[in-house]
TrEMBL record:
Lineage: Bacteria, Bacillati, Actinomycetota, Actinomycetes, Micrococcales
Organism of origin: Xylanimonas cellulosilytica (strain DSM 15894 / JCM 12276 / CECT 5975 / KCTC 9989 / LMG 20990 / NBRC 107835 / XIL07)
One Pfam family in the UniProt entry: NmrA
NmrA-like domain residues: 7-239
Name of this protein: NmrA family protein
Length: 301
């Protein structure tokens, strides 16, 4: 375990796309970390396979296990809280994790929220984030909210096996953001404790431009050399075309409303928060595709 008195930073979701990137950045900065994962086999490591320096690991199956979260956060001063999977009890899990942080004596939480989080957001999962934000505001903890847009990677997952992106997004635009940019912002925010400058602040993390799904499809088609296009659906068609997945109603509603939120203009806002906080422009969707060809290589088939 890190030495008593160290400023320990806990990173939840440390084996995920965002958490792994953040853990590696914090290690490079010499931070003392508590990596909270669900699977010990997936703990992030350095490129040579060695464990991260000044890091220990806590395994917690779910944020909903308050006792386990409380133990995992013992001795932690700052918590990076990655939002849980989109399950019906997601908000309850978040609230349990926040309460465990309070009980463990955590002082500060940096939470990954969503752009436009509000009680009446079109995107239903953004309502979950708003409920979590409200609980954090009432908790007595110092807090910072990172309201991310959809990730660039998510746009590649919208493509069906037939090369079609289907959804009721119309001609709306989305200013998607890269995991790397969010990890860079999180690193800057977590490690800057000199003036409490990030306390009670909400940052909107977006890419540098907002694009339509038709433009995203055209960019992917050019890169892969195959036909990829966007086809608009009605809301009714969107629910019907996703019925075969067998997911619960709340999850499907989240999928569908990610498109209707784009149509409503809720995801088109472009913020300069990434550039201000890390000192360089945010990566565009096209930049990200150039940087990570392995992430869309499956679309070539």
């Amino acid at each position: 375990m890190p030495r008593q008195g160290d400023d320990v930073v806990a990173v939840t979701g440390a084996s995920g796309r965002l958490g792994t990137r953040l853990a590696l950045r914090l290690a490079a900065e010499g931070a003392h970390q508590r990596l909270i994962v669900r699977d010990l086999a997936r703990v992030p490591r350095l490129p040579d396979g060695t464990v991260l320096p000044d890091a220990d690991v806590a395994v917690v199956g779910s944020y909903g296990d308050g006792a386990a979260m409380r133990r995992a956060l013992d001795g932690v001063r700052v918590l990076f809280l990655v939002s849980a999977r989109e399950t019906p009890d997601r908000v309850a899990q978040h609230l349990t994790a926040v309460d465990a942080a309070v009980a463990a004596g955590v002082e500060r939480v940096v939470y990954t929220s969503f752009l436009g989080a509000a009680a009446d957001a079109v995107f239903t999962f953004a309502r979950d984030h708003f409920a979590t934000e409200q609980h954090l505001r009432r908790s007595g903890l110092r807090w910072t909210f990172l309201r991310d847009n959809l990730y660039h990677h998510a746009l590649t997952t919208f493509v069906g096996d037939d090369g079609v992106i289907r959804g009721p997004a119309g001609r709306g635009r989305v200013a998607s953001v890269s995991h790397d940019d969010v990890a860079d912002v999180a690193t800057a925010v977590l490690l800057d404790e000199r003036t409490h400058a990030h306390d009670a602040r909400t940052y909107e993390l977006t890419g540098p431009t907002a694009i339509t799904l038709a433009e995203a499809a055209a960019t992917l088609a050019e890169l892969t050399g195959r036909s990829i296009r966007y086809e608009t659906e009605t809301v009714e068609q969107a629910y019907a075309s996703r019925a075969h997945y067998g997911a619960g109603r709340a999850e499907v509603e989240g999928w569908v409303t990610s498109y209707t939120a784009i149509a409503a203009g809720e995801l088109e806002h472009v913020s300069d928060d990434v550039a201000r906080l890390v000192g360089r422009p945010a990566r565009s969707f096209a930049d990200w595709l150039d940087d990570y060809p392995d992430q869309w290589a499956h679309l070539r088939r």
